[in-house]
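Dear support,

I submitted the protein below through the web form. The confirmation email said the job was done, but the results page showed an empty box. After a refresh the structure appeared. I'm attaching both so you can tell me whether what I see now is the final result or a partial one.
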Amino acid sequence: MQITGSAISLNVADPRASARFLIDHLGFVEQMASDGFVSLTRPDAGVNVIYLRTGLATFKPARIAGSAGEGLLLAFVVDDIDGQYERLRAEGVPIETPIETEEWGERYFQMTDPNGIVIQLVQWV
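What the results page shows now:
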């Protein structure tokens, strides 16, 4: 087996709002979209991010078709955590957790998208 791509799919009430957040603030681009579905890509991210509208009849298995969010962190490793923090604050992005550094070398902050998805930017120091 050879894995040729990776994606994470998140159920949210408003896929367009979450997609717009990643496009506007993190440089993702829309790869494809349809009613209730948006797929985003970024060549350096290593993963596509897909947003599905909660309650889509095509979501399988139906027993787990609830919304994403609780306990979920969408994390991206970046080079300049301090620069990104200042840029995003200046853009008015809602910061959930200011910059912190863990004892194991993870320096990070968290922000929240319009659907409540927590997005974490990380730099290993």
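Response: this is the final, complete result; the empty box was a page-load delay. The chain has a mean pLDDT of 93.
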